Amino acid sequence: MYRKKDRSITPYIEEKTLLDAGYSLIAGIDEVGRGPLAGPVVAGVVMLPPNPDGDWVGEIQDSKKMTSIQRERSYCHLREQSIATATGIVSAEEIDQIGIAPSTFLAMKRALYTLPLQPQYLLIDAFQLKDVNIPQKAIVKGDSLSLSIAAASIVAKVTRDRIMKDLEKVYPGYGFAKNKGYGSSEHILKLKQLGPCQIHRYSFAPIRNWTSNPGYSRTEDSKG
Fold it and tell me: Is the predicted pLDDT of residue 13 greater than 60, yes or no?
């Protein structure tokens, strides 16, 4: 058993205001993986039940403030207790083609369009989603200020971490299971030794500086 936390750690004010206004299907959206040198960007979307209750609710907070064990436990609860959850994934190759900001929006839209039912209102961490005809509110640092967005951050983080652990088996040597594609000193060292692989982001420094020679392409890398 774990002790229930005060839910004020992750406020429910935004959701309560929307419920009082007549909205019942409220979705939180967040993404992870904008900064790594390898792997996808992943967005999560979660529709919590109105006024959720239970010990599991007290565990929900910004995924960056949680341990991997806490995230995995909360992820299981969210999959069981939420009205719906979904994820959207944009690959490293797509990021190189269209850029990280458009890829972030694309991941969010893919997550949203994967939901089995359409939300009535969106609470989104930091960004507005253009070309999405659903009422929405962007909240800066929303994963700390909205329970729904915090829940989405957990779904996105756990999904991406699992992807990177699986990719470590396909592309061994870079430490993806540990560094999750971020530019740790160990990861940079392995990049210098092995060169980039298929799931590295060739448009990100320092990789773009190493692969800028004419004729160098993703298919010619060390793991291609």
Answer: yes
Domains and CATH numbers, the chain: 7-170 (3.30.420.10), 176-220 (no CATH)
Sheet holding 136-139, edge to edge: 84-90, 41-47, 26-32, 121-125, 136-139
For the record, the structure tokens of 116 come out as 């089995």
Q: Among residues 5, 6, 25, 41, which one has the least CA distance to residue 123?
A: 25
Alpha-carbon gap, residue 140 to 48, rounded angstroms: 20
Q: How far apart are CA 73 and CA 24, in angstroms?
A: 26
pLDDT in tens, 198-207: 999 999 999 9
Phi, psi angle pair for 123, to nearest 5° = -110, 120
DSSP, res 62: -
The β-bridge partners of 44 are 30, 87
Of 29, 216, 170, whose CA–CA distance to 113 is shortest? 29
Q: Which of 109, 138, 106 is nearest to 40 (CA)?
A: 106
Average pLDDT, the chain: 91
* Cβ(123)–Cβ(29) below 8 Å: yes
